[in-house]
Amino acid sequence: MDAMEKNIRQYLTFRLAQETFAVDVAKVREILDFVAITKVPQTPDYMCGVINLRGSVVPVVDMKLKFGMEATKKTVTTCIIVLEVVIENETTIVGALADSVQEVVELDSSQIEPPPRIGMKLSIDFIQGMGKLNDEFVILLDTDRIFSFDEGGVLAEMTDSNAA
Q1: What is the pLDDT of residues 50-75, one digit of tens each?
Q2: Are 99 and 75 in contact (CB under 8 A)?
Q3: Phi-psi region of 49 (alpha: psi -120 to 50; beta: other; left: phi over 0)
Q4: Do 129 and 116 meet the contact criterion of CB atoms below 8 Å apart?
Q5: How far from the centroid of its chain's Cα atoms is residue 116's Cα?
Q6: Strands of 100-108's sheet, edge to edge?
Q7: Taking the mean position of all CA atoms in its chain, how far away is CA 114?
Q8: What is the pTM of this model?
Q9: What pLDDT, in 10s, does the model give residues 68-97?
Q10: How many Å apart are CA 162 and CA 164, to the nearest integer?
């Protein structure tokens, strides 16, 4: 592998409202059409509930609510991106509700800039950078940081209590 190949990474792009976001494809397990989600009482608003994925309990997060947007409405393009995230040194499977999935893109490190320090509606803690794709910016997310410590306990409880 030469130096040029090392700087290119693949990202799955998806839409939340009018914004394009992306996650590293290495974190993506699969993409599901919208399925029935079982609500779990006393969880934060952005925690939609859980789904049964081939016998495993998978918590689902409404990414729009997590980012302070309006709740995701079910449409023909609404989907669940199943991600593998690391929370407190443990690999956890979590579903991310998105308006639509777009495509897998390759970005070179020269196409990625650090997130702006001001003017962002989102906490920049879980933004890896801003990717330039054609004439549009893509917000590159750090999935491990999105589901940080406060959600870590909630996700673990949802998985454990529903597995029983």
Answers
A1: 999 999 999 999 999 998 899 999 99
A2: yes
A3: left
A4: no
A5: 20
A6: 100-108, 8-16, 19-24, 136-141, 127-133, 112-113
A7: 19
A8: 0.85
A9: 899 999 999 999 999 999 888 889 999 999
A10: 5
Answer yes or no: are the C-beta atoms of 73 and 60 closer than 8 Å. Answer: no
Distance CA 6, CA 72 (A): 36
Place of tokens 């549009």: 136
Residue found under tokens 């991106």? 81
Q: Using DSSP bridges, classify how beta strands 47-53 and 56-62 pair: parallel, antiparallel or unpaired.
A: antiparallel
Mention every residue, 6+ apart, whose C-beta is less than 8 A from residue 103: 12, 13
Coil, strand, or helix at residue 54? Answer: coil
- DSSP-assigned beta bridge partners for residue 62: 97
Are 27 and 83 in contact by the 8 Å Cβ rule? The answer is yes
Structure tokens at 130: 């801003």
